[in-house]
């Protein structure tokens, strides 16, 4: 499974519509937070260029969110060492992970996920070449990842970020995690969806898989 870290804080020029405080960050059961995390992932997945022939629709997984929350509490800018363990999640033998750390006043789930997606500018789909860091982007649009769970933690400091305080530490976990192949197969949208799937906004959906 491919993992990647960027040792920089994400700075945005647009102030989020809701500014969080240390005690007001959403928990993993917050419906608006869940909807935002799922919505922005599926938006980027549905808009990939070149188009994907079998990009799975992504839905929330409470177990992945619990994993993300437990690891975020450590306030470390480093990957969970158990991602490869088949004991980490009841349904996935590998779990993917993206991490964002930045100013508490600038945090929103959508801006953090957008920062991961912005790595697309450094990624060449045809050659699989990446000029900087692209692992966060490829995980966001990894075709076979169909579950996501995210969590955010307030940290006074985060290990790996010197001289920065009062931070939001945001983690998303994915099932199944990505590997070293291309993130998806190009082709007409939904042209190669699994059997019994339907097409919704260029994504393959299945009631049994998505519940």
TrEMBL record:
The keyword Membrane applies. The keyword Iron does not apply. InterPro entries: Allrgn_V5/Tpx1_CS, CAP_dom, CAP_sf, CRISP-related, V5_allergen-like. It is found in: Membrane. Gene3D superfamilies: CAP. It comes from the Eukaryota. Keywords: Membrane, Signal. Residues 32-182 form the SCP domain. Residues 1-17 form the signal peptide. Its main location: membrane. GO terms for cellular component: extracellular region; membrane. Belongs to the CRISP family. This is Glioma pathogenesis-related protein 1. It comes from Neovison vison. The lineage of its organism: Eukaryota, Metazoa, Chordata, Craniata, Vertebrata.
